[in-house]
Amino acid sequence: MVLAALWLLAGLLAARQAAAVLRRPPDQRLTDLETWIGAHGVLHVSGSLYDGDAFTGTPFSGLVLKPLTRAAEQSLGVAWTFGTLLLVVVLGLVVARALPGPVSRRTSLLAAPLAICLLVLSLPVRNTFTLGQTSIIPVLLVVLTVLPRTSGRQAGVLIGVAAALQPALLLFAVVMWLVGRRRAAVLAGATFAGCTALAWAVMPRDSWTYWVHHIGGAGLGAPADSLANQSLHGLLLRIGLEGPVELTLLAALAVTVAVIGLRRAAHYAQDGQLLLAAAITGSVALAVSPTSWQYQQLWILLAVVGRVGRRAADRLVWPVLVVLAMTLNRTALLPDIQVLGHVGYNAPLLAALAAACLVPFVSRTSPQWDNPVPTPVAEPAKSRFAWVPLLRFVKRPLSRPNLMLELMLIRVGYFAYSWIRGHAPDERSVAEGHGDQVLTLEGWLHIDIEHGFNAIVADTSWLKHTMNWYYSTFHFLIPLSLLGWLYLRRPATYRWARTPLAFATLLALIGFWLYPLAPPRLMGLGYVDTAHGPQDLKNPDFGALTKLSNQYAAMPSLHVGWSLWCGVVIAIVAPYVWMKVLGMLYPLLTTAVIVGTANHYVLDAIGGAAIVSAGFGLQYLLLGIGRRPVEEAPGPLAETVSGVAARVRGVVGPRRSPEADVEKSADAAKPAATAATADPADAEPADASR
After folding, report:
1. How many other CB atoms sit within 10 Å of the CB of residue 188?
2. Which of 172, 348, 428, 536 has the greatest number of beta carbons closer than 10 A?
3. What is the pLDDT of residues 535-591, one digit of tens each?
């Protein structure tokens, strides 16, 4: 079933991408294809291919790919689109076959559709579909060389042809030389020279322009300092360097990256990880090339095959990082902050440099290759209902999750939340109609206190400023601080607590989408927007405020929802009663603030409390009880904690009898297998000291 689902997903993603291109008008379908089939394109040009600086390929690519573009011209890009799709599918199948062994049958079956899904979702392939480029061909030619049945002669020819299409790929011949396949390396160089000479004989003027005037294509196409150029040259230009200083630094960096990266590629090739060696070499080629456009960045995505980390919990960090960098734009990867913006703008290049020079991939000879340190887990705890939990096959991890992976997932999750909230239906008449419904229902329930309370807050200066500061500050500060504290001090409790928070946020997004609601401050009924001042309700956009977020995402209130989640968690983990009381006061104060500032109705607060309750309920229904007292948790870990607690109590109270010590020693000899039912969230020093 999983295999069928993956193939179905791969087919749907591929069909969606092809349809997205074919739905466009012919003149907008494959924008870069116009450089081939347009009135002044390659097929119709009478002069040089590079007269317009739109064509950036080698003269050999212009010579070889003309027949393909003629088919594209005759079918208005349909054949080109499906040809590109076919190349992606073939590349995915080849990548699945090239995984370093030994690979289980289950992994080999799942690898092909998963590889196709990742390829179709990646920015390089999406860019290839849109632009009509054939950059997949060189990647496919090189990846074919890592298949077991590819001979040295075939590998040399394939790499030579790929380098004739993209000259930087000649670095693969260097790696072949380093691993001892010198005949294949010489053949690759000879094939490259032969293809280039053929193009020079047929197209001497274009060859002179490309190889001499533009030195390997440098300066063709978009400006070299544009964000599309993810190379060291583009990075140095973007940070303000130019002239001899930039060229000198570029030469030094390029040589350093090439030496380190190619030696690493040779090492992993000799280790039997040929696909990883190809990905590292391709990443080096991207970094040292004068220009590396987006459609040429598939090599970075192939680096996900490398295994990183001693712990099983760390194995996902590198693949997730690469997939995110290759599928999401910079605003999704990092917050829109100037300092972090440079990292987001250059994420593909940084990922390529990390793959080429920094990431310590596990060797196949390492004991951690097939046996990483496992993540301790606990069986689902029993509940009062026999059918709970529903997902009995899901075991509870007990160790602290990887911090980088958590931060990446939190960032991407928040970006998805912001995007869905911003794109939820926001028709003004519908949102105001829902506002009238809410006010009518509150009047019937006699809880319509918003107008009077808002007037009191607006007329009391200190109260208004305090609530405005509270509203804009605590919504993110308290939940993030609590998550950080739980991660550091209560890792298992952190895992337990974040699940209902995620469920509640997802339910809130559904509410935003299904029930757009105008808050009181936008109803035009005399409410005062204490934070932003009067709004021009005659303006459909309400000024610049609505550009920040969807103003009709009021039901349910996540301010109340998140604060209630904080209150529940604090009430559970806080060691003192006064801390528990403060935790439960937090959602009550938040409810007062959102109503007093005219940002929400009372029913919005009830909706926020409902989704958090549903979040905890869903977690219990799917995963069961998340925490168990130490006294109920058998096994050596619980006994160790109990022993520590007993020694602490012994300082201030009577010691146990020798008979109790004998009983404890006997209990400690129980089989260690029962330790899986223990929850170390309750075995932390803070719990023990209590």
Report:
1. 29
2. 172
3. 555 554 544 444 446 778 889 999 999 999 999 999 999 989 999 999 999 999 999
Cβ atoms of 556 and 504 within 8 Å: the answer is no
Average pLDDT over residues 472-499: 89
Sole residue written with tokens 């500032």: 597
**R_g of the chain computed on alpha carbons:** 31
**Residues in a beta bridge with 625:** 381
CA distance 420 to 327: 18
Q: How far apart are CA 351 and CA 317, in angstroms?
A: 13
Calpha distance 430→426 (Å, rounded): 8
Identify the CA nearest to 328 among candidates 416, 406, 226, 410.
416
Distance CA 671, CA 256 (A): 55
Q: With b meaning 16 or more CB within 10 Å and e meaning fewer, what string describes 199-215? A: bbeebeebbebbbeebe
What token pair was written down for 549?
């977020």
How far is residue 527's CA from residue 454's CA, in Å, rounded to a whole number?
7
**Alpha-carbon distance 50 to 47, whole Å?**
9
Whole-number Å distance between alpha carbons of 664 and 643: 9
pTM score of the predicted model: 0.77
In sign, the C-alpha dihedral spanning 628, 633, 637, 643 is positive
Measuring CA to CA, which residue among 578, 679, 573, 564 is closest to residue 630?
679
Q: Residue 243 in 3-state DSSP? A: helix
CA distances 109 to 64, 272, 275, Å, are 35, 21, 18
Bridging pattern class, strands 396-397 and 377-378? antiparallel
> How big is the CA angle at 348 (ends 346 and 353), to the nearest 5 degrees?
95
DSSP for 254-305, written as a single string: HHHHHHHHHHHHHHHHHTT-HHHHHHHHHHHHHHHSS---GGG-HHHHHGGG
- 371-397 average pLDDT score: 82
Distance of CA 210 to the CA centre of its chain: 38
Residues 109, 647: Cα–Cα separation, whole Å = 55
Write the DSSP symbol of residue 574. -
Report how far residue 655's alpha carbon sits from residue 345's, in angstroms, rounded to the nearest whole number: 64
Q: Tell whether the torsion through CA atoms of 506, 509, 514 and 518 is positive or negative.
A: positive
- Residue 358 structure tokens: 């920094």
Distances 652 to 77, 82, 464, 630, 647 between C-alpha atoms, Å = 83, 78, 50, 21, 9
Tens digit of each residue's pLDDT (9 = 90 or more) over 468-479? 899 888 888 899
Asked if the peptide bond before residue 244 counts as cis, ω within 30 degrees of 0, the response is: no
Tell me what pLDDT residue 536 has: 55
In whole angstroms, what is the distance from residue 288 CA to residue 232 CA?
Answer: 6
594: alpha, beta or left, given left = phi > 0 and alpha = psi -120 to 50?
alpha
Identity of the amino acid at 552: Y
Q: Which residues contact 391 (CB under 8 A, 6 or more apart)?
A: 380, 622, 623
> How far does Cα 533 stand from its chain's mean position?
38
Label residue 489 exposed, middle or buried (CB < 10 Å: 0-12, 13-18, 19+).
Answer: middle
What's the half-sphere exposure (Cβ side, CA atoms, 13 Å) at 396? 31
Q: What is the DSSP letter of 358?
A: I
Widest pairwise Cα distance in the chain: 102
Please name the residue ranges forming H helices in 295-362.
Answer: 298-302, 317-327, 330-333, 338-345, 347-353
Residue 282 in tokens: 């391709």
Average pLDDT across the chain, whole number? 79
Start-to-end CA span in the chain (Å): 48
180: left (phi over 0), alpha (psi -120 to 50) or beta: left
